[in-house]
Amino acid sequence: MSCSLAIILKTVNRNSLIVKQNTIMKLGIIIPCYNEEEGLSETTKQLQLLIDVMMNENKISKDSFVCYVDDGSKDNTWQLIEGFKQSNPIFKGIKLSRNFGHQNALIAGLMQLKDSADALISMDADLQDDVNIVKDFVQKYSEGYDVVYGVREDRSQDTKFKRGTAEFFYKFQRFMGIETIHNHADYRLLSKKALEALSQFKEVNLFLRGIVPLLGFRSCSIHYSRGERFAGETKYPLKKMILFALEGITSFSIIPLHMITIIGFILFIFSLVAIVWVAVEKVFFGDAVQGWASTMISIYFIGGIQIMSLGIIGEYIGRNFQEGKRRPRYIIDKEV
Question: pTM for the full model?
């Protein structure tokens, strides 16, 4: 009976894959924008050319689209988006009421349009991600993959400092037990099934690079060379990068709390050894006067550990405080 059921399921999966391959998919591309007026016209030009070619080749349907999500820009980004919509119907726009942050702007576009396409691709507006591999994403989708990751082949365009900190970040995440894709940012394809699963994750502190691998659907990676930013300045300076890394760690791992417990236990053992040593000095040698340097070092060391431990605990408490309020991750002002 179980053998027959397995054969039936295998046949159903094979038939659904054949239907998927023979159906022209409706594709949506979601692009968060924050003060991108300098390079958005070039991004639009390249995407329009790409979409037109894929439509003509019957790779995607004629009602596929590109949606810009304006994350509270202070320049003319939204005015440009409205202009793109007027000149070509493939472009859409969502304007958030204020700046909610890159991850929230991204989830806003994905959730608002998850029912409007067979699959959505998320990418940045700065043209560092190679738009031409969108064709490879679509091909992998037609082969039955629900999640397709865009992965950088190298970081030759980054500074030595950024390369070093990025490598440390990925290694530290693995040490913390966080499942992420190495050298993958937010350039990915998600099928409608994957988007429905993603909509069940309600946390306010978003770290999509860690959430998406938790979905568990069939996935693969497409490697590409990342170029230089076309125009404007990076929206992730050092401060934001550190906060983003902290978000990823505290949202997915409690190992830092375990480390505090281990450090506290080790210090407790050392303190017991020190007490025994002082007692021996007093009883057998009559000399219990401790040096000023060793005393101050001990105070500073233990005090530093305590402050650091309180800070780590405070980060987790702060995350729980934010999650408990259940405030909206984004608020939409306008849609075109």
Answer: 0.72
